[in-house]
Amino acid sequence: MGGGKGGVGKTFVTANLATSLARLGKRVIVVDVDLEGANLHTCLGVPTPQRSLADFVSERVEDLAKLVVDTPVPNLQLIGATHGNLADAQPSHLRRVRLLRGLRQLDADIVMLDLGAGSHASVLDYFLVSDDGILVLQPEPTSVENAYTFLRAAFYRRMRLAMVGHGVRQLVTMAMDQRNERGIRTPLDLLREIEAADTAEGHRFVETMRVFRPRIIVNGVRTAEDVKLGFSVSSVCKKYFGVEAEYLGYVNFDDEARQSVSMRRPIVDLRPDADVSIYLQRIARKLLGLPSTSAAGGRQDAGVPGYPSGGKR
Ligand SMILES: Nc1ncnc2c1ncn2[C@@H]1O[C@H](COP(=O)(O)OP(=O)(O)OP(=O)(O)O)[C@@H](O)[C@H]1O
Ligand SMILES: [Mg+2]
What we know:
The protein has helices at residues 10-23, 40-43, 53-57, 93-104, 121-129, 141-162, 166-176, 187-197, 199-211, 224-241, 255-262, 267-270, 275-287, and strands at 28-32, 69-70, 76-79, 110-114, 134-137, 215-221, 246-252. The chain is of the alpha/beta class. The longest helix has 22 residues, at 141-162. The protein is globular. The structure holds adenosine-5'-triphosphate and magnesium ion.
C-alpha cells in the first residue's frame, strides 16, 4: 500500500482493509514498513510493540515470525516498526532482499505492507515485490502528481530489474531522466530503443509491462467528480505506460474516519455501518474476488460502485 505522498490515508486504509479481510476469515498479517513514521499499530489499537521490524533491520532478529504480535482483531496480526534506529531507517539492499524473502514465508493467507511516503528505492521495492501493489491517492493535485511520480519510478525500477543485458539496463537508466539526450520520453519510446538493440529484451520488456499491475484506491472522496479520478489515473496508466491499473474503489471523506484513528480502532469495527466502512469492506471483498454485498450507493457492476448516497444504511 503505497502512494508517494504523505498523509493520504495509506495507513488508515491498510488497517481497515486488513481488519475487513480478517473478518472475512482470512489470516492476515499487516507489516509496518514505514520505519521512520511507524503508526500502524496505533490505528489497530495495539500498544507500542516491544519487538518490531526495527529489530530485523538492525540484525538483532533474523526470524520475522518472532516479531509478529496479536491485535484486538481475531485473525489479524501485526509486525510493527517501533523503536527504530533512525540511522538505519532505509535498510541496505541486502537486508531488504532478506526482509522481502522473510515476508513471503510468514504463516498467513495475506501479508499486507504499509509503506512510507516518497519514492525511495526501498519503498519502491516493497511495492514491487507484492503481488498487487496498491496505490492510495487523494483527490487533490499534489497527491495525483505524487502518485504519477511514484508510478513512474516504480515502473522504471521494475523494468530495470527485469532487463538482463548491461546495455539495455543502461537505456532504462537513461530513460529515468526525463530530459535524457536520447529523446526517450515515454515507456513506448524506450521499448522502441530496446527492441532495436535486442529483440529478446524487447519481448521481456513487454512481458514485464503486462505483469506490472498496480491498483488504485482513491481516499477522501467528497464529490462525484472525485470518484472519477480513479478512472482517469487508470486510463493515463494505460495510455502512457501501457499498464493495466485496476481502479479498486474509493473511500469517502468522513470525519468519523479521523475520530476512529484518535480512538485507536479501525472504523470498520467501530462503525461497520458507516458509509466509509461499507466502501472499505467492499474493496476488501473485491480483493478476494467476492461479490459485493448491497448498500451505500447503487451500481455494483461498473468496476467501481456508485457514489456515496450521503445517508447511512
Ligand atoms: N477517508 C478519510 N476521511 C477522513 N479522514 C481521513 C480519511 N482517511 C484518512 N483520514 C485522516 O488522515 C490522517 C492521515 O492518514 P494516514 O496516517 O493513514 O496517512 P498516510 O498516508 O499513512 O500518511 P504517512 O505518509 O505519513 O504515513 C488519518 O489519521 C485520518 O485522521
Ligand atoms: Mg502511514
